[in-house]
């Protein structure tokens, strides 16, 4: 009994925890608060749990989990920490409430995913309500070659010059890019020679007294003080050639080379370029000097001022012409080298035949960076993108500085001196000659840096120059990349941008990293990385429910104005048309006349026969030709006359020429037309013969058939006169009578048209 009682007492708290876990899980499922994490992100996990989210644990395969962070910093620690975390999860107690809740949601869909890389999951199978901390196709600004290409197209998107915040960069995998880099290197050689002349004169005038300057004035053409006997003196022509190259460069910027022919080109030959480059190497490396440099000071100074006004990167170029060569797709500073000989750079690229396109990029090294206690540093700046259409960028107010472990020097091109990546510096020990005022862990917060500037009287530089310049650089870069990224809704991504400050405190964008490391490698990152993760959850999760919630140190950097859709007015979308009608053949009307010429003089009878008289076999009195005729339906009907009818009329006119009147003209008798419906008594043959001989000049026509074929109105509609019910179709064609002659017409198509209103009788020939 005691044993059973003790078991009940022990199991009671477990049951209570299970009930609590079940209630919390049911609430999370109802509110769609299920999340999954791939990677070592304990801050994200704890932050979401505090907000009522339940984790669905994924057991990803090791081969699917990337071993490299986007910026590559702290990757070994991340990998080790991730493995350790997996072991801790496996060894968790069965009664842990979070483990119980995770098992309860093992069949649920996670609505929040935070992973190291996007490729860990099936990106395209996500539903629209699932949140992911990555976007697709971000290589246009998260890779070195992508950022290089994007900056070239920046002027097409925004009114900004990329040379003001991004050191010029070239890809060395194409011949055209190699030639552009070679031209840039040679131009930098010429401008560096001018800088050497100006710097030599400036260094002589500043530290020396008048007595020393007068003493050295006579020995200006001799070997300078401190120079060994092996120094080689370069002639003044060496400076003249450099000035010539700089003048040609300025002319190209002002498009003065457009009208130049090939014969008048001022470019140097390959041999001249090789000689100039080799002499430049000996000059900047301390193996040679220019005795007559003072004589060229004014000319060099004037040219440098002009070049500086058109080239904003003149200041960072320095004298050594150092370039940094980077693999296009690698991170963590791997295989990055600094070189100042163009032959070595091209040889390095040519020796390695890249299997993939765009493997190497070369970028101008900033030779005049801002130093803190003679040590180089860079700035890691975070920003968050929550939407690409419209583009929405959040800028983090806090950042941190990363110092090099070595003192800065251009005499050595070791990556330990010139690269501030933590993945490189963490393996090195701090130089003994380095200032003790620098932190031993080689990191500062931006707040500590502002205090440093304040002590040196430059406290306003951060808020007036550095901070707003970084914001402009990020905004311009994201505007260019907007058209290349997959704008998936309900996604977001946190990026880390690296900047280097120049001597004038202007920030220069070096690169942008996806999946920036959040490993607490130093006290600075332990504080800031945890803080930025918590604030990210506030922006992407809390702000959905409350637009006025606390968003931590994030501030809205850019919100693209929404483009309103045009109002849809379907009533205005109307297509109207008019049917095409066949053109009508013009038919001129015959004017009404009382006296017409004789039949022999009537030539228009071939077209019209106004003089023809019709006899419908008796009926009403004949009407004059000029009398108007109308139909019941009010339509004008043309009447066709066969061609041979015209010929009969002409022969009749010739035969009856003796009946003409004294004036040579004959008045035609009146013509009548009888409607087919009219019923008249049929005249006898004797009556018809007497009528025919009574008026030799009269023209009569026997009754027409009941149905007139091929009759068309003016509008083109066929005209069919009604047939009397008691009449039958005549078996013979109508007979034309004139005087004492009579001929039978064989064409049954002759028909009559009675004109309407004020129109006159028209007799036309139908088409055959």
TrEMBL record:
SUPFAM superfamilies: Glutathione synthetase ATP-binding domain-like (SSF56059). GO terms for cellular component: axoneme; microtubule cytoskeleton; sperm flagellum. It catalyses: L-glutamyl-[protein] + glycine + ATP = glycyl-L-glutamyl-[protein] + ADP + phosphate + H(+). PROSITE patterns: TTL. It comes from the Eukaryota. It is found in: Cytoplasm, Cytoskeleton, Flagellum axoneme. GO terms for biological process: axoneme assembly; flagellated sperm motility; spermatogenesis. Residues 210-224, 652-664 have a biased composition (Basic and acidic residues). Keywords: ATP-binding, Cell projection, Cilium, Cytoplasm, Cytoskeleton, Flagellum, Ligase, Nucleotide-binding. It holds the Pfam family TTL. The keyword Ligase applies. This is Tubulin tyrosine ligase like 8. It comes from Bos taurus. The gene is TTLL8.
């Amino acid at each position: 009994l005691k044993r059973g009682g003790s078991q009940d007492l022990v199991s009671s708290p477990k049951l209570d925890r299970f009930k609590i876990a079940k209630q919390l899980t049911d609430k999370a499922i109802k509110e769609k608060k299920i999340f999954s994490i791939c990677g070592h992100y304990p801050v994200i996990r704890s932050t979401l749990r505090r907000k009522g989210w339940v984790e669905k644990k994924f057991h990803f395969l090791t081969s699917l989990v990337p071993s490299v962070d986007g910026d590559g910093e702290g990757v070994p620690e991340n990998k080790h920490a991730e493995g350790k975390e997996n072991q801790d999860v496996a060894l968790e107690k069965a009664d842990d409430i979070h483990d119980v809740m995770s098992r309860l949601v093992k069949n649920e869909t996670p609505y929040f995913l935070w992973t190291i890389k996007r490729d860990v999951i099936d990106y395209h199978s996500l539903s629209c309500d699932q949140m992911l901390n990555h976007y697709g196709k971000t290589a246009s600004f998260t890779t070195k070659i992508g950022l290089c290409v994007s900056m070239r197209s920046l002027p097409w998107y925004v009114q900004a010059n990329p040379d003001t915040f991004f050191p010029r960069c070239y890809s060395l995998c194409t011949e055209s890019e190699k030639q552009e880099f070679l031209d840039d290197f040679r131009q930098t050689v010429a401008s560096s020679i001018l800088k050497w002349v100006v710097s030599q004169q400036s260094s002589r005038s500043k530290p020396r007294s008048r007595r020393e300057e007068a003493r050295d004035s006579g020995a200006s053409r001799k070997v300078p003080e401190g120079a060994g006997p092996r120094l080689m003196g370069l002639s003044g022509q060496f400076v003249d050639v450099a000035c010539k190259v700089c003048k040609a460069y300025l002319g190209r910027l002002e498009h003065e080379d457009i009208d130049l022919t090939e014969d008048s080109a001022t470019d140097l030959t390959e041999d001249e370029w090789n000689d100039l480059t080799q002499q430049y190497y000996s000059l900047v490396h301390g193996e040679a000097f220019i005795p007559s440099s003072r004589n060229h000071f004014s000319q060099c100074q004037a040219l440098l001022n002009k070049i500086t006004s058109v080239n904003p990167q003149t200041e960072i170029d320095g004298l050594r012409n150092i370039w940094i060569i980077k693999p296009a797709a690698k991170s963590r500073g791997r295989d990055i080298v600094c070189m100042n000989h163009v032959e070595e750079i091209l040889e390095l690229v040519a020796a390695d035949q890249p299997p993939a396109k765009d493997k190497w990029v070369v970028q101008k090294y900033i030779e005049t960076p801002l130093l803190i206690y003679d040590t180089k540093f860079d700035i890691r700046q975070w920003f968050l993108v929550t939407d690409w259409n419209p583009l929405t960028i959040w800028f983090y107010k806090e950042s941190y500085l990363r110092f090099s472990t070595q003192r800065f020097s251009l005499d050595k091109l070791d990556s330990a001196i010139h690269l501030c990546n933590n993945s490189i510096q963490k393996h090195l020990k701090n130089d003994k000659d380095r200032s003790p005022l620098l932190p031993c862990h080689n990191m500062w917060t931006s707040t500590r840096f502002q205090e440093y500037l304040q002590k040196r009287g430059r406290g306003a530089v951060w808020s007036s120059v550095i901070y707003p310049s970084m914001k402009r650089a990020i905004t311009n870069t994201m505007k260019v990349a907007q058209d290349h990224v997959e704008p998936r809704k309900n996604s977001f991504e946190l990026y880390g941008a690296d900047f280097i400050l120049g001597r004038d405190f202007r920030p220069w964008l070096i690169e942008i990293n996806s999946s920036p490391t959040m490993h607490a490698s130093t006290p600075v990152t332990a504080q800031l990385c945890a803080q930025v993760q918590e604030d990210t959850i506030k922006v992407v999760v809390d702000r959905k429910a409350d637009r006025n919630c606390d968003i931590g140190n994030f501030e809205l950097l850019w919100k693209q104005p929404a483009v309103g859709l045009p109002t849809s007015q379907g009533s205005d979308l109307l297509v109207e048309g008019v049917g095409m009608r066949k053109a009508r053949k013009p038919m001129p009307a015959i004017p009404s006349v009382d006296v017409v010429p004789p039949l022999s003089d009537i030539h228009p009878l071939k077209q019209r026969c106004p003089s023809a008289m019709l006899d419908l076999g008796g009926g009403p009195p004949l009407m004059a030709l000029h009398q108007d005729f109308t139909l019941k339906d009010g339509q004008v009907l043309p009447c066709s006359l066969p061609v041979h009818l015209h010929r009969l009329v002409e022969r009749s006119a010739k035969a009856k020429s003796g009946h003409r009147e004294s004036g040579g003209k004959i008045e035609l008798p009146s013509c009548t037309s009888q409607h087919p419906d009219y019923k008249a008594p049929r005249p006898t043959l004797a009556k018809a013969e007497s009528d025919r001989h009574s008026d030799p000049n009269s023209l009569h026509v026997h009754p027409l058939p009941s149905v007139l074929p091929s009759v068309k109105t003016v509008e083109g509609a066929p005209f069919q006169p009604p047939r009397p019910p008691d009449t039958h179709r005549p078996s013979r064609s109508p007979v034309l009578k004139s005087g004492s002659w009579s001929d039978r017409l064989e064409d049954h198509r002759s028909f009559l048209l009675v004109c309407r209103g004020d129109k006159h009788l028209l007799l036309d020939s139908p088409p055959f």
